[in-house]
Amino acid sequence: MTEMEIVKFFAGLFILIGAFLSLVTAFGLIRLPDVYTRNHAASKSATMGVMLVLLGTFIYFWFIEHHFNSRLLLGVLFIFLTSPVAGHLIARAAYNSGVKLSDRTVQDDLAKARKKMKAEEHLK
Amino acid sequence: MWISITFISLAMIGLIYRVIKGPTVADRVVALDAIGISLVSVVALVSVFLETSAFLDIILLIGILAFIGTVAFSKFLEKGEIMEYDRNGDR
Question: Does residue A74 contact residue B56 with C-beta atoms inside 8 Å?
């Protein structure tokens, strides 16, 4: 096994795991019951999948084509930074615009905390 | 390689199903964000297939556009408008 084959194997492995994680994202978005659980599925596994695909592409271009592409690393960093922020924003917007939780949810801490805050404001 | 692009295409078809069906608007926004993110990996795979690095700038562009779109949609959902002209912020 030469060096080239080892590098190709690892690039292909990273890309394959990333594609599999994208498929896991789609399954989560289809099967899970409400917005918040779907948001959890999308923001975690999609981020990880894209980061692995970009890492595999980076390794491929670096070792096979001898071309160190810094934009791929920048893309990995950017997606790593912005995807959780986007997920949090969507979840907050959904909660504030009154999307109901699913029937099987057992705990809603934010509603309790908000009720408590409102009661304290009322006392003042 | 073909297996991975098949996986991502199947994932995008599933996400499009969620965009069309999604019971609330927030579902559709989540699915659109996930579609934007998987489009990034499709671009990376296509540039590996064609053995060119010309498409790799587009990755950053699509990532930034998906993020801005998601932020704008969530602000629209929360406040009902995207740009606010009221600088005091008392609404």
Answer: no
**Cα gap B13→B80, rounded to integer Å:** 30
User: Which of A32, A43, A51, A57 has the highest number of chain B CBs within 10 A, making it the mutation to test binding with B?
Assistant: A57
**Among the partner residues B41, B47, B59, nearest to A49 by beta-carbon distance:** B41
Q: Which amino acid is at B86?
A: D
**Residue A14 in contact with residue A59, Cβ under 8 Å?**
yes
pLDDT tens-digit readout, A14-68: 888 988 888 888 888 888 888 888 888 888 888 898 999 899 988 888 888 787 8
Tell me if A104 sits within 8 A of A35, measured CB to CB: no
pLDDT at B90: 55
Rounded Cα distance, A26 and A32, in Å: 10
User: Taking 70 as the threshold, does the pLDDT of residue A1 lie above it?
Assistant: no
Q: Distance, in angstroms, between B46 CA and closest chain A CA? A: 10
CB B64 within 8 A of CB A78: yes
Tokens of B5: 């692009």
Q: What average pLDDT does this structure show over A65-78? A: 85
